[in-house]
Amino acid sequence: ESGVDVTTSSRFTFVDLAGSERMKKTGAEGERAREGIKINEGLLALGNVINALADEERLARGGKAQHVPYRQSKLTRLLQDALGGNSQTLFLACVSPSDGNAPETLSTLHYANRARNIKNAPTKNVDATMLEVQRLHALTYVLQNELVKQMFQ
């Protein structure tokens, strides 16, 4: 045992996107209509980020040539690490089997298909200083054992 505690931490973000709001279909008015507009703005910004990250031409070049508009909304800013950062991301798309919801279902599946093309490269974040301290403690432990062996030979 090295005697040094190494703490590993992570963040779990769960977001329910709720789906787009169709004003004609819901008949929303007043505050509810303004809330629907905000939902649609956030989903549009998220779609723009997903499009930028999943751009086939950008992925083929292997670079980050295109600007990713994370700052367009609070939602995309919140999800920045999950979408294009150092993380593992699960995108769960819920669809309806009803014929009346076919356009929304198709839109959701297109959205999910674009999100599937995002390539993240998660790595374990390690504090270099703590790693060096841990290595030095291990070395000290080995050297102490060698000294004890030499003393009793």
List the helices and strands and how they pair.
Blueprint: H1 23-26, H2 31-53, H3 56-61, H4 74-78, H5 80-84, H6 102-116, H7 128-151
Question: How does this structure look, described?
Answer:
- With 153 residues, the protein is an all-alpha fold.
- The chain is built from seven helices and no strands.
- The longest helix is centred in the C-terminal third of the chain and has 24 residues.
- It starts with 22 loop residues before the first helix and ends with a helix.
User: Fraction of residues in helices?
Assistant: 40-55%
Structural class: mainly alpha
Biggest sheet record: none
E-strand count: 0
**Helix-strand pattern, N to C?**
HHHHHHH
Q: State the end-to-end CA separation.
A: 25 Å
**Number of helical stretches of at least 4 residues:** 7
Q: What is the beta-strand fraction?
A: under 5%
CA-based shape: elongated
Summarize the structure.
The protein is built from seven helices and no strands. With 153 residues, it is mainly alpha-helical.
List the main descriptive attributes of the protein structure presented here.
single chain, 153 residues, mainly alpha, 7 helices
